[in-house]
Amino acid sequence: MNTKTTKLLYRITTGLLTALMLMSATMYFAQYDMVSEVFGKLGYPTHIIYPLAIAKYLGLIAIWTNISPKLKEWAYAGFFFDILLAMAAHININDGEFIPSSIGLLLVLSSYYFHRQLEKESK
Questions:
Q1: Which of 2, 5, 21, 114 is in Cβ range 3.0-4.6 Å of 10 for a Cys bridge?
Q2: Residues 61, 10, 21, 81: is their CA dihedral positive or negative?
Q3: What is the model's pLDDT at position 121?
Q4: Domain containing 29: what range?
């Protein structure tokens, strides 16, 4: 795969991941009561909603700005575990809502993969 194609795929997957995370984090602020109810059903404490929303915004900034390679790795790791735990929680309560988080997991893995490919190609 050439660098141009890899960049395009990286931007597409990272853009979709960004849209998902922005929607999620914004909903945490805009629809707190509904999100709080869902968190309760999933077995998660509601006091993590606002910090999690802020962490999502900061993670996106870390990924897009390339402030630090280590920070970018941590952002990807945070998104991976956030989405993996959401998917597991939905599967655990059997509410059929695990598909959006499965798509999110695919997006975070794809974005990370293409990021790593770009790093290899630039060496």
A1: 114
A2: negative
A3: 85
A4: 3-121
List, as own/partner pairs, every contact residues 36-44 make where C-beta atoms lie below 8 angstroms and the sequence separation is at least 24, other chains included.
Answer: 41/93, 41/95, 42/86, 42/89, 42/90, 42/92, 42/93, 43/89, 43/92, 43/93, 44/89
Q: How confident is the model at residue 1 (pLDDT cuts 50, 70, 90)?
A: confident
Distance in angstroms (rounded) separating the CA atoms of residues 58 and 74:
11
DSSP per residue, the chain: --HHHHHHHHHHHHHHHHHHHHHHHHHHHHTHHHHHHHHHHHT--GGGHHHHHHHHHHHHHHHHH-S-HHHHHHHHHHHHHHHHHHHHHHHHHT-S-HHHHHHHHHHHHHHHHHHHHHHHHT-
Residue-wise pLDDT tens digits, 37-65: 999 998 899 999 999 999 999 999 999 99
Determine the Cα–Cα distance for residues 87 and 91; give it in Å rounded to an integer. Answer: 6
How many domains is the chain partitioned into structurally? Answer: 1
